[in-house]
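Give me C-alpha coordinates for this 324-residue protein.
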Amino acid sequence: MKALVVTTLDGPSALIPVEVDEPAADESTILVEVHAVGVSFPDLLLTQGLYQYKPKLPFVPGGEIAGIVLSAPDGSGFSPGDRVVGLTGVGGAMAEVVALQPEATFLLPGTISMPTGAALLFNYLTVHFALIRRAHLEKGESVLVQGAAGGIGTAAMTLAPCLGASRTIAVVSSEIKAEYVRNLGASDVLATENWRDEVLAITDGRGVDVVVDPVGGDRFTDNIRSLATGGRILVMGFTGRDIPSLKVNRLLLKNAAAVGVAWGSWWAEDPGRLSAQWSELFPLLETGELQIPEPTRYPFDAAPEALLDLEHRRTVGKSVLVLR
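Here you go.
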Protein backbone atom coordinates (compact mmCIF):
# COMPACT_ATOMS: atom_id res chain seq x y z
CA MET A 1 0.00 0.00 0.00
CA LYS A 2 1.00 3.64 -0.24
CA ALA A 3 1.84 5.71 2.81
CA LEU A 4 3.20 9.22 3.29
CA VAL A 5 6.52 9.04 5.11
CA VAL A 6 8.70 11.68 6.78
CA THR A 7 12.30 10.85 5.92
CA THR A 8 14.08 13.96 7.21
CA LEU A 9 13.04 16.71 9.61
CA ASP A 10 13.04 19.39 6.92
CA GLY A 11 9.38 20.33 7.16
CA PRO A 12 6.44 19.36 4.95
CA SER A 13 8.57 18.98 1.83
CA ALA A 14 10.15 15.88 3.41
CA LEU A 15 6.79 14.07 3.34
CA ILE A 16 6.90 11.64 0.40
CA PRO A 17 4.75 8.73 -0.86
CA VAL A 18 6.33 5.32 -0.26
CA GLU A 19 5.18 1.73 -0.86
CA VAL A 20 5.01 -0.13 2.46
CA ASP A 21 3.48 -3.38 3.70
CA GLU A 22 -0.16 -3.33 4.75
CA PRO A 23 -0.78 -3.95 8.46
CA ALA A 24 -1.69 -7.56 9.17
CA ALA A 25 -5.07 -8.53 10.59
CA ASP A 26 -4.98 -9.88 14.14
CA GLU A 27 -7.34 -10.60 17.03
CA SER A 28 -6.96 -7.23 18.71
CA THR A 29 -7.17 -4.59 15.95
CA ILE A 30 -9.61 -3.38 13.33
CA LEU A 31 -8.29 -3.03 9.78
CA VAL A 32 -9.72 -0.02 7.98
CA GLU A 33 -9.53 1.05 4.34
CA VAL A 34 -8.78 4.76 4.68
CA HIS A 35 -10.92 7.20 2.69
CA ALA A 36 -9.79 10.47 4.32
CA VAL A 37 -7.16 11.62 6.83
CA GLY A 38 -7.32 14.66 9.09
CA VAL A 39 -4.46 17.17 8.96
CA SER A 40 -3.51 18.91 12.20
CA PHE A 41 -0.93 21.31 13.61
CA PRO A 42 0.99 18.51 15.41
CA ASP A 43 1.55 16.89 11.98
CA LEU A 44 3.30 20.07 10.86
CA LEU A 45 5.46 20.19 13.99
CA LEU A 46 6.37 16.51 13.60
CA THR A 47 7.79 17.14 10.12
CA GLN A 48 9.98 19.86 11.65
CA GLY A 49 11.08 17.89 14.71
CA LEU A 50 9.39 20.47 16.95
CA TYR A 51 6.66 18.36 18.55
CA GLN A 52 7.08 17.06 22.12
CA TYR A 53 6.82 13.49 20.83
CA LYS A 54 9.77 12.72 18.54
CA PRO A 55 9.36 9.45 16.60
CA LYS A 56 12.34 7.80 14.96
CA LEU A 57 12.83 8.42 11.25
CA PRO A 58 11.28 7.40 8.96
CA PHE A 59 7.70 7.65 10.22
CA VAL A 60 4.15 8.10 8.96
CA PRO A 61 2.35 11.14 10.45
CA GLY A 62 -1.37 11.70 10.95
CA GLY A 63 -3.65 10.69 13.78
CA GLU A 64 -7.28 10.53 12.61
CA ILE A 65 -9.04 8.79 9.75
CA ALA A 66 -12.40 7.97 8.24
CA GLY A 67 -12.91 4.77 6.25
CA ILE A 68 -14.49 1.36 5.80
CA VAL A 69 -13.84 -1.63 8.06
CA LEU A 70 -12.04 -4.45 6.22
CA SER A 71 -11.86 -6.86 9.15
CA ALA A 72 -12.65 -6.77 12.85
CA PRO A 73 -12.13 -9.20 15.74
CA ASP A 74 -15.10 -11.00 17.26
CA GLY A 75 -16.70 -9.05 20.06
CA SER A 76 -15.32 -5.70 18.90
CA GLY A 77 -18.75 -4.40 17.90
CA PHE A 78 -17.62 -3.77 14.32
CA SER A 79 -18.12 -5.67 11.06
CA PRO A 80 -16.62 -5.49 7.56
CA GLY A 81 -18.30 -2.70 5.62
CA ASP A 82 -18.97 -0.44 8.62
CA ARG A 83 -18.32 3.27 8.09
CA VAL A 84 -16.04 4.40 10.90
CA VAL A 85 -13.79 7.14 12.19
CA GLY A 86 -10.78 6.36 14.33
CA LEU A 87 -7.63 7.55 16.04
CA THR A 88 -4.17 6.11 15.41
CA GLY A 89 -2.54 8.32 18.05
CA VAL A 90 0.27 10.71 17.19
CA GLY A 91 1.15 9.05 13.86
CA GLY A 92 0.43 6.30 11.38
CA ALA A 93 -2.77 7.64 9.78
CA MET A 94 -1.46 8.86 6.42
CA ALA A 95 -1.70 5.46 4.75
CA GLU A 96 -4.15 3.55 2.57
CA VAL A 97 -4.90 0.97 5.30
CA VAL A 98 -4.56 1.38 9.07
CA ALA A 99 -4.99 -0.87 12.12
CA LEU A 100 -7.11 0.68 14.88
CA GLN A 101 -7.77 -0.29 18.47
CA PRO A 102 -11.49 -0.96 19.07
CA GLU A 103 -11.65 1.62 21.86
CA ALA A 104 -10.40 4.29 19.42
CA THR A 105 -12.85 3.38 16.63
CA PHE A 106 -16.39 4.76 16.27
CA LEU A 107 -19.31 4.29 13.91
CA LEU A 108 -19.81 7.28 11.62
CA PRO A 109 -23.41 8.46 11.15
CA GLY A 110 -24.63 7.95 7.58
CA THR A 111 -25.41 11.66 7.25
CA ILE A 112 -21.72 12.60 7.55
CA SER A 113 -19.32 12.24 4.60
CA MET A 114 -15.94 10.55 4.91
CA PRO A 115 -13.94 13.81 4.55
CA THR A 116 -16.10 15.49 7.19
CA GLY A 117 -15.69 12.45 9.43
CA ALA A 118 -11.91 12.73 9.13
CA ALA A 119 -12.24 16.35 10.30
CA LEU A 120 -14.11 15.37 13.42
CA LEU A 121 -12.24 13.52 16.14
CA PHE A 122 -9.15 15.51 17.10
CA ASN A 123 -10.79 18.91 17.22
CA TYR A 124 -14.25 18.08 18.52
CA LEU A 125 -13.16 15.63 21.21
CA THR A 126 -10.49 18.12 22.33
CA VAL A 127 -12.97 20.98 22.53
CA HIS A 128 -15.59 18.77 24.21
CA PHE A 129 -13.01 17.82 26.86
CA ALA A 130 -11.95 21.46 27.21
CA LEU A 131 -15.41 22.97 27.65
CA ILE A 132 -17.03 20.21 29.71
CA ARG A 133 -14.26 18.79 31.88
CA ARG A 134 -11.77 21.64 32.10
CA ALA A 135 -13.82 24.86 31.86
CA HIS A 136 -17.02 23.35 33.36
CA LEU A 137 -19.03 25.50 30.95
CA GLU A 138 -22.41 26.47 32.37
CA LYS A 139 -25.60 27.24 30.51
CA GLY A 140 -25.81 30.88 29.50
CA GLU A 141 -22.08 31.62 29.66
CA SER A 142 -20.12 33.45 26.97
CA VAL A 143 -17.17 31.96 25.07
CA LEU A 144 -14.43 33.93 23.30
CA VAL A 145 -12.53 31.96 20.66
CA GLN A 146 -9.08 32.96 19.43
CA GLY A 147 -8.09 31.64 15.99
CA ALA A 148 -11.80 31.07 15.45
CA ALA A 149 -11.49 30.10 11.77
CA GLY A 150 -8.96 27.32 12.48
CA GLY A 151 -9.65 23.68 13.28
CA ILE A 152 -9.95 24.04 17.05
CA GLY A 153 -11.66 27.39 16.60
CA THR A 154 -14.41 26.10 14.33
CA ALA A 155 -15.02 23.16 16.66
CA ALA A 156 -15.40 25.57 19.57
CA MET A 157 -17.67 27.89 17.59
CA THR A 158 -20.05 25.09 16.62
CA LEU A 159 -19.93 22.91 19.75
CA ALA A 160 -20.13 25.59 22.46
CA PRO A 161 -23.78 26.52 21.68
CA CYS A 162 -24.74 22.83 21.82
CA LEU A 163 -23.21 22.67 25.30
CA GLY A 164 -25.11 25.68 26.62
CA ALA A 165 -23.09 28.76 25.65
CA SER A 166 -25.34 31.76 25.02
CA ARG A 167 -22.75 33.82 23.14
CA THR A 168 -19.78 32.90 20.94
CA ILE A 169 -17.31 35.68 20.14
CA ALA A 170 -14.88 34.97 17.30
CA VAL A 171 -11.47 36.62 16.85
CA VAL A 172 -10.12 36.34 13.29
CA SER A 173 -7.35 37.85 11.17
CA SER A 174 -9.08 38.56 7.83
CA GLU A 175 -12.42 39.40 6.27
CA ILE A 176 -12.52 36.01 4.54
CA LYS A 177 -12.23 34.32 7.93
CA ALA A 178 -14.75 36.74 9.40
CA GLU A 179 -17.33 35.73 6.79
CA TYR A 180 -16.54 32.09 7.43
CA VAL A 181 -17.25 32.28 11.18
CA ARG A 182 -20.37 34.39 10.62
CA ASN A 183 -21.69 31.51 8.54
CA LEU A 184 -20.93 29.19 11.48
CA GLY A 185 -23.27 31.26 13.64
CA ALA A 186 -20.84 33.44 15.61
CA SER A 187 -22.66 35.91 17.86
CA ASP A 188 -19.92 38.50 17.35
CA VAL A 189 -16.88 38.67 15.05
CA LEU A 190 -13.85 40.76 16.00
CA ALA A 191 -10.62 41.59 14.14
CA THR A 192 -7.26 40.78 15.71
CA GLU A 193 -6.19 44.43 15.64
CA ASN A 194 -8.51 45.75 18.36
CA TRP A 195 -10.35 42.73 19.71
CA ARG A 196 -9.72 43.32 23.43
CA ASP A 197 -11.34 46.77 23.50
CA GLU A 198 -14.27 45.45 21.49
CA VAL A 199 -14.77 42.49 23.84
CA LEU A 200 -15.12 44.85 26.77
CA ALA A 201 -17.38 47.16 24.76
CA ILE A 202 -19.82 44.47 23.63
CA THR A 203 -19.99 42.94 27.12
CA ASP A 204 -20.54 46.33 28.81
CA GLY A 205 -17.17 46.03 30.53
CA ARG A 206 -17.94 42.66 32.13
CA GLY A 207 -15.73 40.45 29.95
CA VAL A 208 -16.29 36.82 28.97
CA ASP A 209 -16.70 33.65 30.99
CA VAL A 210 -14.45 31.35 28.94
CA VAL A 211 -11.60 31.98 26.49
CA VAL A 212 -10.58 29.22 24.08
CA ASP A 213 -6.94 29.93 23.20
CA PRO A 214 -5.07 27.65 20.79
CA VAL A 215 -2.83 30.57 19.72
CA GLY A 216 -0.85 31.70 22.77
CA GLY A 217 1.83 34.29 22.11
CA ASP A 218 1.20 37.97 22.70
CA ARG A 219 -2.59 37.58 22.93
CA PHE A 220 -2.42 35.67 26.18
CA THR A 221 -2.24 38.60 28.62
CA ASP A 222 -5.11 40.38 26.87
CA ASN A 223 -7.10 37.15 27.06
CA ILE A 224 -6.71 37.27 30.85
CA ARG A 225 -7.73 40.93 30.88
CA SER A 226 -10.83 40.04 28.86
CA LEU A 227 -12.13 37.55 31.43
CA ALA A 228 -15.12 38.28 33.60
CA THR A 229 -14.88 37.69 37.34
CA GLY A 230 -14.64 33.93 37.79
CA GLY A 231 -13.65 33.45 34.14
CA ARG A 232 -11.47 30.66 32.78
CA ILE A 233 -8.90 30.69 29.99
CA LEU A 234 -8.27 27.36 28.26
CA VAL A 235 -4.63 26.89 27.27
CA MET A 236 -4.99 24.69 24.18
CA GLY A 237 -1.85 25.20 22.13
CA PHE A 238 0.59 27.64 20.64
CA THR A 239 -0.04 28.05 16.92
CA GLY A 240 1.50 31.51 17.31
CA ARG A 241 4.72 29.57 18.10
CA ASP A 242 5.48 31.63 21.26
CA ILE A 243 4.70 30.15 24.68
CA PRO A 244 3.53 33.01 26.92
CA SER A 245 4.19 33.56 30.62
CA LEU A 246 1.62 34.62 33.17
CA LYS A 247 1.68 37.03 36.11
CA VAL A 248 -0.64 35.14 38.40
CA ASN A 249 -1.82 38.26 40.22
CA ARG A 250 -4.05 38.80 37.17
CA LEU A 251 -5.86 35.58 38.06
CA LEU A 252 -6.06 36.44 41.75
CA LEU A 253 -7.68 39.82 41.16
CA LYS A 254 -10.48 38.33 39.05
CA ASN A 255 -10.91 35.00 40.83
CA ALA A 256 -10.02 33.63 37.41
CA ALA A 257 -8.31 30.41 36.30
CA ALA A 258 -5.84 29.45 33.59
CA VAL A 259 -6.59 25.83 32.73
CA GLY A 260 -4.39 23.48 30.73
CA VAL A 261 -6.05 21.27 28.12
CA ALA A 262 -4.04 18.15 27.20
CA TRP A 263 -6.73 15.89 25.75
CA GLY A 264 -4.26 13.44 24.22
CA SER A 265 -2.54 12.56 27.48
CA TRP A 266 -5.91 12.46 29.28
CA TRP A 267 -7.39 9.75 27.06
CA ALA A 268 -4.07 7.91 26.74
CA GLU A 269 -4.25 7.26 30.50
CA ASP A 270 -7.61 5.53 29.99
CA PRO A 271 -8.70 4.90 26.37
CA GLY A 272 -12.20 4.10 27.61
CA ARG A 273 -12.69 7.82 28.10
CA LEU A 274 -12.99 8.20 24.33
CA SER A 275 -16.14 6.07 24.21
CA ALA A 276 -17.70 8.15 26.98
CA GLN A 277 -17.01 11.32 25.00
CA TRP A 278 -18.31 9.81 21.76
CA SER A 279 -21.53 8.74 23.48
CA GLU A 280 -22.16 12.40 24.30
CA LEU A 281 -21.26 13.71 20.84
CA PHE A 282 -22.96 11.03 18.73
CA PRO A 283 -26.57 12.11 19.45
CA LEU A 284 -25.70 15.70 18.53
CA LEU A 285 -24.23 14.49 15.23
CA GLU A 286 -27.02 12.03 14.46
CA THR A 287 -29.79 14.60 14.99
CA GLY A 288 -27.92 17.36 13.15
CA GLU A 289 -27.88 19.65 16.19
CA LEU A 290 -24.10 19.74 15.82
CA GLN A 291 -23.14 20.68 12.27
CA ILE A 292 -19.54 19.91 11.28
CA PRO A 293 -18.23 22.47 8.76
CA GLU A 294 -17.13 21.13 5.40
CA PRO A 295 -13.33 20.69 5.56
CA THR A 296 -10.76 21.96 3.08
CA ARG A 297 -9.93 18.95 0.89
CA TYR A 298 -6.56 18.02 -0.61
CA PRO A 299 -5.52 14.99 -2.67
CA PHE A 300 -3.54 12.45 -0.65
CA ASP A 301 -0.23 13.28 -2.34
CA ALA A 302 -0.77 17.00 -1.68
CA ALA A 303 -0.10 16.59 2.05
CA PRO A 304 2.96 18.90 1.91
CA GLU A 305 0.80 21.65 0.41
CA ALA A 306 -1.86 21.10 3.08
CA LEU A 307 0.72 21.42 5.86
CA LEU A 308 2.29 24.53 4.34
CA ASP A 309 -1.12 26.16 3.99
CA LEU A 310 -1.75 25.33 7.63
CA GLU A 311 1.58 26.82 8.66
CA HIS A 312 0.94 30.05 6.77
CA ARG A 313 -2.71 30.25 7.87
CA ARG A 314 -4.06 30.13 4.33
CA THR A 315 -6.89 27.72 5.13
CA VAL A 316 -10.10 28.03 7.08
CA GLY A 317 -11.54 25.24 9.20
CA LYS A 318 -10.07 21.77 9.19
CA SER A 319 -7.97 20.32 6.36
CA VAL A 320 -8.20 16.70 5.22
CA LEU A 321 -6.47 14.46 2.69
CA VAL A 322 -8.86 12.52 0.46
CA LEU A 323 -7.81 9.08 -0.80
CA ARG A 324 -11.05 7.66 -2.21
